Backbone:
């Protein structure tokens, strides 16, 4: 998935309350390698954890669970292989392209 696709998915996720997020995660943790308590989502095969209070909203499709956080990160967990990816949506692609272009000019001169 590209950052552009992640942004499109994030724009479709609606804000939910803490209780709604908690209930959905508890239901979903039965099918995924997740452990959920009142404070955190624990990713079983990773050291990483995610505060439930920092979750903006959730979305599930046939392949993935998407968790959008309040600091604008999209967590994507594959339902088939349990792979966990994080997309930082705060990073500007435009700024990255300018930096890459300027570095290329400096190297060529």
Residues:
């Amino acid at each position: 998935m590209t950052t552009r696709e992640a942004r499109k998915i994030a724009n479709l996720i609606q804000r939910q309350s803490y209780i709604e997020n908690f209930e959905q995660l508890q239901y979903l943790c039965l099918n995924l390698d997740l452990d959920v308590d009142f404070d955190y989502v624990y990713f079983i095969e990773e050291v990483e954890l995610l505060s439930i209070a920092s979750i903006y909203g959730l979305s599930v499709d046939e392949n993935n669970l998407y968790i959008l956080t309040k600091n604008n990160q999209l967590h994507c967990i594959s339902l088939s292989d349990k792979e966990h990816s994080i997309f930082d949506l705060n990073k500007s692609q435009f700024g990255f392209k300018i930096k890459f272009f300027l570095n290329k000019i400096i190297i060529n001169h």
